[in-house]
C-alpha cells in the first residue's frame, strides 16, 4: 500500500465516523494508516460482502456497547450478532478513539469455532490490514491493547463460523 491517499478512507484524522455495510452485508476487511503528526490517529477503510444466502436476511441489527477511549477492551456482538459496521469518535485528551460495533443477527443462528487473529498491526504505528482469512468466517468483535506511550491500539479480531441451522442458546 504505497499511496495511502486514494484508499477510500471513511474519516480524516481526529474526525468521528459512522460506517455501516449495506443491508444484508457483513464486514470482511479492515485497513488503517497511522500518523503521529495527526494526533496519533488512524485513517480507516472497510469492506463489506453480502452474507451467504444460507444465512438469509438479518432479523435484527443494532449498535452494541461503546468501548471507551484510552483503555484496553474486548467487545463481542451481543445476542450472537455479526459485525456489519463501526462507529468511532476521537478524543484529543487521550489521543485515542471510542469504538462501537454495528451488529446484525441472523434468526437463531449461532457462532462456533471462534478464533482470534494475530495482532493487527503487528507492531504499533504500522499500517494495519485484516482480511477475513477464509470463506465462512465472520467478524464477531475484537480484543484490543492500547499503548499509553505510543498512543496507538493493536487489534485481535474475533472471527467465527456460524451454524447453518437454528440453535437454542446464546453462544458467547
Q: Give the count of structural domains.
A: 1
Query: Quick one: how many beta strands?
Result: 11
Return Rg in Å.
16 Å
Helical residue percent band: under 10%
Oligomer: single chain
Q: How is the main sheet built?
A: 4 strands, antiparallel
Number of helices: 0
Task: Indicate the proportion of strand residues.
Answer: over 45%
Keywords: Disulfide bond, Secreted
Family: Belongs to the dermatopontin family.
Subcellular location: Secreted
GO cellular component, one term: extracellular space
Folded structure, characterized:
The protein is mostly beta strands and about 170 residues long. It has one domain. It is built from no helices and eleven strands. The chain has strands spanning about 15-20, 25-35, 40-50, 60-65, 75, 80-90, 95-105, 110-115, 130, 140-145, 150-165. Strands 1-6-7-4 form a four-stranded antiparallel sheet, with no helix packed on it. A hairpin with a 4-residue loop joins strand 6 and strand 7 (about 95-105). The model has no long low-confidence stretch (mean pLDDT about 90). InterPro entries: Dermatopontin. Its main location: secreted. Pfam families: DERM (PF14704).
Task: List the keywords.
55% strand; four-stranded antiparallel β-sheet; disulfide bond; secreted; elongated; mainly beta; 172 residues; Dermatopontin
